[in-house]
Specification:
By secondary structure, this protein is mostly helical. The chain has a domain of 190 residues: Alpha/alpha barrel (Glycosyltransferase). It has 17 helices and 4 strands. The strands form 2 sheets. A two-stranded antiparallel sheet has the order 1-2. The chain is globular. InterPro entries: 6-hairpin_glycosidase_sf, 6hp_glycosidase-like_sf, Glyco_hydro_9. It catalyses: Endohydrolysis of (1->4)-beta-D-glucosidic linkages in cellulose, lichenin and cereal beta-D-glucans.
Length: 434
Amino acid sequence: MASSASLLAFSALTWKDSLVASGNWDLAVRNVRWAADHLLACAAKDDEFVAQVGDHFIEDSFWGPPENQATKRPVFVIKKSFRDGADVLSQAVAALTGAGLLLRLPGEYQDEDTSLEFLDKAQALWDEWASTLESVWQAPEGNNTVVSRTHSDDKAWAAAWLCKKAKVLGSAGASAVCDDAADRWAQVRLGEGYMTTDNYHAAALLLLLDTGAGSTADSATYTASLREHFLHRWAGNSDSVQACDCDVPSSSGLCSIDGTYVVQDGGPGVSQFTANMAFVALAAAHLDGSDTKETRGWQCWARGQVNWLLGANGASQAYVTGLGGISYFQSDVRIPTSPRHRGSACKDGVCAAPGEPNPNTLPGALLGGPERVAAFEDSRDAGPPTFVSIEYNAGFAAALMVGGRGLSAIEQMLAAKGASWSVYCTAGERGPVS
């Protein structure tokens, strides 16, 4: 929850004007605040933090609306004396900081008192606990609902958020706070070239680049790491590295990269990898600020990935629910109606029978995605392909939020010039639609 909320907060703050113009600002702030309220409650005690509510095995044994679940829901707590939980607490710091900054801004949910409460709690968690931890948290008895194997990425993400807060508030010690964020990144050792809650390095790089933490040389390092470790592997580059082919059956129609078994071999949430990297590509192009063949390549690759998930693929199969209510959405695309989601599968005390669509429409949920051989069955019983999660949706929603030089902004620019995406994507540096 914390990682999803902090990613949405980053997108909302960075592209506020686009959200306001589209009428979605208040919705974004409300959703992030909802998560922050929960995290604040998790930190009610100075020496304890609630890391997880509910037993994974018990939760899966109940099928019905969550509000009707009367079974035991144990609480898993991190204790300060145990010296673990760097990943969980750092993500909480990031989310509370992001929410606090959002609530300072004009809108329906502007609330300066709550903003200060979130920001103060985040700072206290960092200063008194999270910043010195060197171990991840593991739920007992293999009960983890989210895998987390590293903490340096989470701590760099949290430190970058505190840098952003210091700069936004004009704090006297902003330079030292941002230098600390840069120093923490210098300690990071990059692993797999993708982004998930288990691997937040790309998000941390984007926020560090956005804040300008550290020196000019540090910013150059952030940019180089984004290009070489992430974007060149997925979107290719203007020279010799080719973008992954989204029409190759062995990659399930979604991009994958050599050596990244968790992407290539499928499993829960395959589509989230591509959605997350589409966000990274769009955000990187925006923060780069230039209009080059390379940055256009990132944007065009991201557009292809988002469109693929929305049904622009050989099977005309969308992997996002609730699109049927959009009047201009293409009618020949199959829209999933049976996500594995208890709330939408049951209505008025009755759950849909096997083979029947969910009685409640779940709007805008990104599904786990196709299997390795591109097979997909729109069934609640199909397993990971129809799973839904806020973790899946965070990167997808963040990608759609990107303004400035994001997809919607480019669409509007091309329409005004009477140009097409194909012209934009094939034009050279500073081509005819610049």
